[in-house]
TrEMBL record:
It comes from the Bacteria. Residues 19-89 form the Transcription regulator PadR N-terminal domain. This is PadR family transcriptional regulator PadR. Coiled coil: none annotated. The lineage of its organism: Bacteria, Pseudomonadati, Bacteroidota, Cytophagia, Cytophagales.
Length: 121
């Protein structure tokens, strides 16, 4: 099994969640979103973001509006729709449950290995 591929797949699974979370704070420009995702090491390829934003928009979870810019052409700012807010709330519940489940499994594995190390398995 390829570790890099596994890491990419894991990131992909939570990328939408992170994007929706960033947009939930208020209107956000794509390049600012990209900067935050990159600095958090969630995403490193710019080409991944725009198709994902389009898919989320087509799913009715987000929308965008054009805002005039003093320094050039209008900029596209993304916002969550009401549907997107409901989706994000449900996604957060799932994330919280998953985190707890994964933490429990990791903790059980740690205890199991610790017992084996002490010859108590």
């Amino acid at each position: 099994m390829d570790l890099e591929n596994a890491k990419v797949q894991m990131r992909k699974g939570i990328l939408e969640f992170c994007i929706l979370h960033i947009i939930s704070r208020g209107e956000v420009y794509a390049s600012d979103m990209l900067e935050e995702l990159t600095s958090a090491k969630i995403m490193v390829v710019e080409g991944t973001l725009y198709p994902l934003l389009t898919r989320l928009k087509n799913s009715g979870l987000l929308d965008y509006k054009w805002v005039e810019s003093a320094s050039g052409p209008p900029r596209k700012y993304y916002v969550l729709t009401d549907t997107g807010r409901v989706f994000l709330t449900q996604f957060e519940e799932t994330w919280t449950d998953l985190q707890a489940s994964v933490a429990q499994i990791i903790q059980d594995s740690f205890h199991h290995h610790h017992q084996q190390d002490q010859g108590q398995a």
